[in-house]
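Protein 1 of 2
SEQ + STRUCT:
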Amino acid sequence: MRTLFLVICAVALSNCAAVVAVPPVLQYASTAVTIISYLTTGKGTSDHVISAVTDQDCALHRVVLSSEICRPKNIRTVNVGPNNGMGAARVVIASKNQ
């Protein structure tokens, strides 16, 4: 059920589903905001909305990376090692206040 909710949110928040015709100017503005969001935070606007709704750290692009879409906010992964195209080891860092 939760996965279905996340997929519906992703489709509804993307430019793929439109209930009402949206003027091109608003579509361009939405795309610009999403690009700026990706460049500054590594997540799109849909990811931020889903993160707020679920109270977790969510990013839809993690599906492509064979990772879970959402993870608890107090857990971060850090890539260590050379980034030579062969991949790097991932280290999970957990907060002390779990």
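Protein 2 of 2
SEQ + STRUCT:
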Amino acid sequence: MSGNKCQRCGKTVYAPELMSVPGSNSVWHKGCFKCADATCGITLSIANYMLYGDNVYCKKHVPKPKGRSVSNVPHAKETPTGASLRPRPPS
């Protein structure tokens, strides 16, 4: 597997130092397998990493997926209590 570039440092990763994870084509050096959050950098292992895109994070810093709120759903209306209503289909 020589010739693979490390996701973190961009240098070649050779078999004895290679880290890879299921679901990603990226590879890392064992020493580069750290949380991608700029404020963290904790060294991760296969037992405690979280994959987001092509980067690995610790559980605390993995980005949260952005969901759709009720206001973004077409044809949804919100009542004063916060419950959502959909228009009744024509009879």
